[in-house]
């Protein structure tokens, strides 16, 4: 399929119509087990993904599949409760849709959250990693195909993809939470299978601190659109081979729920410290 600016604008136009012209300034993507944070949105306008033209539909467990517009800590937000993954059968090119639609809607910054496996053995289950950079060895890209200049140039820099200033804010909030906060590198694996112990050993050698199956396509699309990104990974399990036990999706969900309350406090403090256009 040839994706065009008008293709994404059709999604944005529908959202504007349903929301009465609501213009968000901050995009938020809630990952596995973190979707309950959407209840903090004030005066929410809830739109199921399935109702939005040219949009995708969440099929992964614990992903509600709804767009929520409203206000959190003074920020006008476009909150995705549930995201999309390549393992659901979506092409990398199609995964550019959410961020491009949010760009048209008007967001100026994007916060990505996810559940991840700890590659770094100094991390513990329940810790939070502020993403400093990412490794994606697959040659696929959400920006493949004809370039859409309304979003950005054909070739673009990713050196500050995870914005330094936003990372500083997130790290400065470490003393407000009981959770351990780290800064590290997110290593992308396509899934849906968990990584093998050998893959994790290789990822560790290459500099990966946490492994996950999402986030990179959204971050790359945002970089193309020149949208500053903050990435937060919740360590829901130790990566394959670190412990002598099998990995399960149940463990991921269980840990997400266990740390949810403390993570929400930390996340809310970050939002309070991010400068707010509408405050």
Q: Could you characterize what this model shows?
A:
The protein is an alpha/beta fold and 279 residues long. It has one domain: Nucleoside phosphorylase domain (Rossmann fold), CATH 3.40.50. It is 27% helix and 23% strand. It contains six helices and nine strands, in the order H-E-E-E-E-H-E-E-H-E-H-E-H-E-H. Strands 5-8-7-6-9 form a five-stranded mixed β-barrel. Helix 1 packs across helix 2. The longest helix has 25 residues. The N and C termini lie far apart (41 Å). The mean pLDDT is 92.
Write the layout of secondary structure elements.
Blueprint: H1 5-19, E1 26-30, E2 42-48, E3 66-72, E4 75-81, H2 97-105, E5 109-118, E6 128-135, H3 164-172, E7 181-188, H4 197-205, E8 210-212, H5 216-224, E9 229-238, H6 249-273
Parallel strand pairs: 1-4, 1-5, 5-9, 6-7, 7-8
Antiparallel strand pairs: 2-3, 3-4, 5-8, 6-9
Summarize the structure.
The protein has helices at residues 5-19, 97-105, 164-172, 197-205, 216-224, 249-273, and strands spanning 26-30, 42-48, 66-72, 75-81, 109-118, 128-135, 181-188, 210-212, 229-238. The chain is of the alpha/beta class and 279 residues long. It has a 5-stranded mixed β-barrel with strand order 5-8-7-6-9.
**Rg from Cα:** 18 Å
Helix content, binned percent: 25-40%
Distance between the termini: 41 Å
Strand order in the sheet with the most strands: 5-8-7-6-9
Q: In total, how many domains does the architecture comprise? A: 1
Total beta strand runs:
9
The CATH architecture name reads 3-Layer(aba) Sandwich
Counting DSSP H or I runs of 4 or more residues, the number of helices is 6
């Amino acid at each position: 399929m040839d994706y065009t600016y008008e293709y994404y604008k059709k999604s944005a136009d529908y959202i504007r119509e349903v929301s009465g012209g609501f213009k968000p300034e901050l995009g938020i993507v809630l990952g596995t087990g973190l979707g309950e944070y959407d209840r903090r949105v004030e005066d929410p306008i809830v739109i199921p993904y399935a109702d939005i033209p040219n949009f995708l539909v969440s099929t992964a467990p614990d992903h509600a599949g709804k767009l929520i517009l409203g206000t959190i800590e003074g920020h006008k937000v476009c909150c995705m409760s549930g995201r999309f993954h390549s393992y659901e059968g979506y092409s990398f090119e199609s995964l550019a849709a959410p961020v491009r639609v949010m760009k048209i809607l008007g967001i100026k910054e994007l916060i990505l959250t996810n559940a991840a496996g700890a590659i770094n053995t100094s991390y513990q289950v329940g810790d939070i990693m502020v993403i400093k950079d990412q490794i994606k060895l697959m040659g696929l890209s959400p920006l493949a195909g004809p370039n859409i200049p309304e979003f950005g140039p054909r070739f673009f820099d990713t050196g500050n993809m995870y914005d330094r200033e936003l990372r500083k804010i997130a790290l400065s909030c470490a003393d407000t939470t009981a959770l351990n906060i780290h800064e590290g590198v997110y290593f992308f694996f396509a899934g849906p299978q968990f990584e093998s112990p050998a893959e994790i050993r290789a990822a560790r050698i290459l500099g990966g601190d946490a492994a996950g199956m999402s986030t990179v396509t959204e971050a790359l699309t945002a970089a193309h659109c020149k949208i500053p990104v903050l990435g937060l990974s919740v360590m829901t399990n130790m990566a394959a081979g670190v412990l002598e036990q099998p990995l399960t999706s149940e463990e991921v969900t269980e840990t997400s729920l266990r740390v949810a309350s403390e993570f929400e406090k930390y996340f809310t403090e970050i939002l309070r410290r991010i400068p707010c256009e509408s405050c």
